[in-house]
Predict the structure.
Amino acid sequence: MANNEEKKVKNSTAIDSRCPSCGAKITFNPKKKKWICDYCNSEFTVQELKNKSENENLEEDDKGLFQYNCPDCGAVIVADEQTSATFCVYCGNTAILKNKLTGKFRPNYIIPFKKDKEEAKEAFRNLSKGRKFVPKTFNNETNIEKIRGIYIPFWLYDIVFNEELDAKGEEIIHWTTGKTHYTKTDIYEMHRKGTMTFEKVPVDGSSRFENDLMNSIEPFDYNELEEYNHAYLSGFLAEKYDIDEEKCYDDAKTRITNSGEKEMLETCKHGIPRIIKKEIDDVISKFYYVLLPVYMVNVKYKDKYYTFAMNGQTGKFVGNIPLDKNKVFIYSIISLIICFGIIELIIYLIYCLGGK
């Protein structure tokens, strides 16, 4: 793996997570893109906080961060000292153990939340609107209130991809002359060679967040990456990665290989080409450790957890709600009774009219 030129975070100015005016808690507001003081209602931009921090010569460290360990599912959630984690966002367990964060928790970059919690809650409510057979638990306000904004750890890779492949395609033509049927098969052997550059290929660094689910809420706009400051965590949670960049690269390589081969095969115009031989050479020019914003909630129904997630930058929401089989059964019985009653009424009216 190539050396990571961006692995070490630049010496950026730290942002204090307390109000410059009164010293109370400040929370990042996604809508205003400012930090808001809950006590004196002051508002601060990132530049205003950086200017204050530069004047006070603050050094960013991890002293203000804590980790919450779930003894049930093993999740490790990170938050600042003002943000409490009262339950596990993955399994709902309330027995969360709070410990001082050990070691460095310092990503390269972060995409701050743009959507607020109310938008996430409304998206969850809309998911069940118009659906007759949604289990009651999915409309329970207690579960809706458990939606939390959490920064998910990701690795981004810049990759130069070289591939040389041999493909074979067939074109088959059928025709009939008189009573004779003919088939002509043309076989084409094709050779392709190309170099492609992929920037910021994302791979989830958490084993607890399903890759398919995360892929479903992509894409993120990486033009909005900001240098990491733990003040962005104020009011939100974050997770530590448990899959390193070496292991995650396998997934990144699979993604770029599929994309690269698709592009190359689209230039093969004869039949449906299939690869018979290939050689791949991939080089990582850079990789980054980043935090991406996601709202999520897990709802337990009949001993199974259903995960719902919303892209905290774009608002794209995904999740599947199961059917309540009891509701389906009751609705079917009622429908049969109504249909039977209508049929009986029609028979009765026909009998009465016939009698006259």
User: Anything to note?
Assistant: The chain has two domains: 26-158+198-244+285-323, 325-356.
